[in-house]
From TrEMBL:
Residue stretches making up the ABC3 transporter permease C-terminal domain: 278-396, 712-827
Recorded topology in the membrane: Multi-pass membrane protein
Recorded GO MF terms: transmembrane transporter activity
Ranges annotated as spanning the membrane: 276-297, 325-347, 367-387, 418-438, 450-476, 497-517, 712-736, 762-786, 798-824
Protein name from the UniProt record: Putative ABC transport system permease protein
Organism: Flexivirga oryzae
One Gene Ontology cellular component annotation held by this UniProt entry: plasma membrane
Family the UniProt entry places it in: Belongs to the ABC-4 integral membrane protein family.
Subcellular location: Cell membrane
Amino acid sequence: MGLMLLLALSSLRRRKAAVVGAFLALFSAAAMVCSCGALLETGIHGTVAPQRYAGAPVVVTADQQVHWTKVKHKHGKTKTKTKSKALADRAWLAPSVGVRLNRISDAIVVPDRTFPAEIFIGTGRFIPGEGGRTVGHNWAAAQLTPYHLVAGRPPTKPRQVVVDAGLAHATGLDVGSTTGIQSTGAPGEYVVVGIAQPRNPVTDESAIFFSDVEAKTLAAHGGSVSAYGVFGVRPDRVRSALQGTAAQVATGDDRGTAEFPEATAARARLTSMGGAMGGTAVLVAGLVLVGIFSLSVQQRHRELALLRAVGATPRQVRRLIGREALVLGLAAATPGALLGLPLAAAIRAEFVSAGAVPGTVTLTRGPLPVMGAVLVTVLAAVVAARISARRISRIRPVEALAESAVERGRVGTVRVTAGLLCAAGAGAVSAVLTHLHTEPAATPVTYLAVLLWLFAAGLLGPILARAAVAVLGVPAHLSPVGGYLAVQNSRLRSRRLAAVMTPLALLIGMTSTILFVPATLTSAARSQLGAGLHADRVVASSGPGVADRVVDRLRRTAGVSAAVPVTRSTIWVGRDKRSAEGIGRHGVDQVMDPDVTSGSLAALRPGTIAMSDRAADGRHLGDIVRVTLGDGTKATYRLVATYRRGLAFGDTLLPFTTLRRHQDDPLATAVLVRGAVDPTIVRDTPGLRVETGAAYLRSVDDRGWGNAAVDFVFVVLIVVFSSIATINTLALATMARSRELSLLRLVGATIRQVRGLLRWELAFVLALAAAVGGGAAYVVLCGFSTGMTGSSTPTIEPVVLCLLLLGAVATAAVATFVPAAILLRRNAAAEVATRGG
């Protein structure tokens, strides 16, 4: 064991170029895996510290999740599993919960009503608060933090408010100032009667406090409340009083989740993103490492063959290469994994700035992601090395020596069989994609499918390389020296060509897939909306929304035949998460056409629902649809219509009056207008603008098809890692050809002809990588597009594709010609003498 380790260390010291290349690949792989693991751990174990509820020892909220039970019958046993998913809006507590809490002796119960409220200046600009949002509350809830007055008095009448000190400073308000505020109704003028300062830091929202009576009206949920803070009694007494209800009792850091219910969804999102990105990262790293170690073993064929010839057993050769990989893996993965934690912090910051994750979710910096990344990376290195050494360690020593001079022509049966199995699996997964109709389900399967195709291409690479050379060799013969030599060399060294092709194919295939998945959805949504939106004008809001009185004013305007308010939410139909759009009844046929396939939107009224064909999933008109609305309310609706344009108008359509009652913000997000509207009609209303239908179409990218921040981060990780792998592999392959290129010069080839040889070989590599990576991506994108849009033609943006290919060409050219320039400056005769024969 000790001798083998010493031999491994000695071998690594003598192969500095190969070691540096493998080290960088392992280092970046460990950093990528650790960063994804840290995101995953944050999603699973992350906590959210309470801010506004920090002063309340016990917080009671409604259940902010939807639950269902899965029952499995297998081998005579029945297994049940409960799954939970976060709601889109806040679930409210019924008044009966407050009654129970007030019966607890010695308990001080403080209700909290939370609702949107924003301050505006003049008739246009809304002032963002801490963390980018401003929230309204009843004054009694101030003691949950607690806030204390630093000036003025509490609000006791309508149109009176207390603002927190940070917001007062940002807006220049003081006691006695008058300011505009819009909450869940029409905007109005309010008098600032007090300034309040929190005793605990509140960094993710600014508070506006209303009188308790007015807050109840603005909250728009009747006697229900957002939460109760309970003082003076133990948590177990609170739990006992609420036994038999769905109310949740939170203490400690759980109060943070109660205060920020969106954090639950964010943690689930981080879990899925971290898992998907981490799993993809592991597969990508495995694919790259197998290629790098395969190339390294090919270049050491003579050395390993000599070891076999002097008596080394196959097991000893495998152990030697395995020990080398183990030492190199530990040396590279440990610092790489440590770098993964700050990389995860940077990724989390990017998600927060883009709004994909709230700032309340802090990164968990535990040891598990680091340890896991080191373990996975080292294991991948050892497995990749032993796979690469399999052939050389099994054949007879004489055969090994022969193959060290001339590459074996036939590809091994095991490798071909594995490649065909991967291709079959990739085809099956691509076929499954055509039946997946939701983005969360389809996206990870898309990445898996393209990776399987690339694994298959890597395994079948020598065969594909020979086929590519047979085709590309025809134009290459136009160059009598460089082209001819490149064709002959590539035929004899098809394994080397396949090894350097793999990371380039990965770069092109994965990046294309990640970029064109959201592009396909966005393009399809824009196309459907363009065909189905008949509104001449759209009134949209940059604040809380469009108030009812504006809708009424638009309907009374001369020349306007229809003004239809719309709002959007997310609901659960059974176990399926679906987008929902609430639409006004009157005139809807004049402003939108979702391409109804059965039934009629005229029948859409309270107690009914319309669904896209894909969301309906076999349901028929008149069927009862069981729904969990955004605030957790369970309801049943009768299906009255189905339609095709679900990407544009949502998976489900509900009456506007139905959906708004179950949202945090009951105002319309926009009003679709048929007829001429003078923009001055909304000039006196803050935050409103009148757009043309074309301008509204251009904003479809903000409808949520894909997450730009996640896509950007994923693309950066894949591009950086694939680029490092490409540079390592091509540079290693070029530097190992020192003797070969020097011999060419000694027999009469000029430096220009040698460069011509390298250019033609690089052209073969690039063409094969573009065909393999681009082909894999296109097949997978066709399956994704079929399932998600109904069309088998994905959206490929030519400019983006050209930039991607140019980037791949530039990366490959630098990795090839910079090492080549170094080699060509050396003395050819001395190089041949040094390298030996």
